[in-house]
Amino acid sequence: MTTANPTTVLITVTGRDKPGVTSVLFAALVRHGADILDVEQVVLHGRLVLGVLVAEQHDPEQLQEAVEQAMATVGVHVEVEIGVEDGNPVDQQSTHAVVVLGQPVTARSFSEVARRLAEVNVNIDAIRRVADYPVTGLELQVTAEDTGQEADEQLTSTMAELAAHSGIDVAVERTGLVRKAKRLVVFDVDSTLIQGEVVEMLAAKAGCEQQVREVTEAAMRGELDFEQSLRQRVALLEGLPASVLDEVADELELTPGARTTVRTLHRLGFHTGVVSGGFTQIIQRLVDDLGLDFSAANELEVVDGKLTGRVVGEIVDRPGKARALRRFAEQHGVPRAQCVAVGDGANDIDMLSAAGLGVAFNAKAALREVADTSLSHPFLDAVLFVLGVTRAEIEAADAEDGVLRRVPLEA
Length: 411
Description:
By secondary structure, this protein is an alpha/beta fold. The protein has 16 helices and 15 strands.
């Protein structure tokens, strides 16, 4: 029997994954001359879900019988639906990627994500795990009915509001080439690439740590002009021997995941660097250690082997950070839409706004309000998951280079 028009048939295979299932299925399809329209396969903890959409020119019922018999020989379950519409043309793609990060991601919090997406008419097309360490990461490919700017802002704000009170982070990005085309990442240093604040570490050497911390916190909250606050803090360091700069550089502690993040970005061909309100004499050690491509920071004046309590040259303040990002992007020939900026304080606002993707990392409220996404867990490699890189990909590359290790996380 030959039909005038081909019949579309959907074949869904489920069961324990094993070698030979796919080859047996397709051998049956070959014998019936079926044309392949679409194939999707997922293996979840050893369980296989394989879907094949075919166009059958002859007898779809006979094809169904042959497929059922073939799958019985390999001990898996199969469902065959005849006359299914091909509702997923090849040029149709999800509109957004929604990355959910948690430690852990509870069923309740994920249920809330799904509910909120439904409320703004966003359909979940696919879900995959992108990380099991140091956080659980799930990436949802979703399609929004309305893709205008207002709808984008509504989706982003809805997910940000959810993240603010649910104990998870939720990042929203447009899918397509724009997401895959990021090529340059700029990090703030203090409380972002490293733990703590360099100026406070210097202040501890001068016995004025509390005074400096109070000024720093006011500046990070946006309550004090950064240049003014910097000069006030540096003035308190007058008379310190220049040797303390090396001492503090030796004491720097990277944020967990920082080295993995930079190493992975370099493998992917990214340009990486730092733009800091800190000090060149200390930052340069970090640049050399991590192999960063560029840096911008303030320079402490040293006379006769002692700090004068002044900075020299142009101040890297809030607008200065944005200027530095634009300068580095131009030097490396990278459009700003392909730049990522990561920071934690109010003085990072302009820099994050100038980048194609601004990430607030354990940030103050002033920065979270303007960032494209916020991360609240203390692991910098979560930035990679937002960019679509998976933990499995990171660890495969680390294993190949002989640097794979997992540091036990504190309970």
